[in-house]
Fold this protein.
Amino acid sequence: IRHRLSGVKHVVLVLSGKGGVGKSTVACQLGFALAAMGRQVGLLDVDICGPSLPRMLGLEGEEVHQSGAGWSPVYVSDALGAMSIGFMLPDPDAAVVWRGPRKNGLIKQFLKDVDWGDLDYLLIDTPPGTSDEHISVAQYLAGVAQGAVVVTTPQEVAVADVRKEINFCRKTGIPVLGVVENMAALQVRLPATRLLARGGGAEAGGDVTAQALQALE
């Protein structure tokens, strides 16, 4: 694995103790931002049971190709490539019902068989928690990963689990580069706001901006 990743300058994990906090979104946005700065970026999705990157990157229906050098990433652009089990499933709605050893085996294969070439950053999107996948990644990338970005939301239930994730990083020797508080606030000027009706019936999706602004006044 160390030899395979010898062309990667920085390996960064994107972690969270809680699901649904926008971890995959943060990983994708980091990838897009770094690529826009002229960096060569790879996104690796090791969430085996709930892969999100193919949909978030607009790559649904793409497939992984294999060559003598290994598995080729699927590219969003010349500067941004991705790898996920989602590219290997015959049906995007197919459930991956695997035990720990099989999931860990695929993660190891991703790390040693994907031909990333020379990268400035390899961002690894992980599942929530501190389960088998996290332990495997920490072991496989010992001395290789430069650190982790931890994602949370303001709710105490999310923050409590993120504290556990930070403790996991300390125990495994992974430096925490920073904590991203996602979904913390939204500021939009009212004249730029458009509100749509919810629910069923004929009015669903209808524009109710004028009524809502009048009620606020």
Remarks:
- The two ends are 61 Å apart (CA to CA).
- The mean pLDDT is 89.
- The first strand starts at residue 8 and ends at 15.
- DSSP finds six helices and nine strands in the chain.
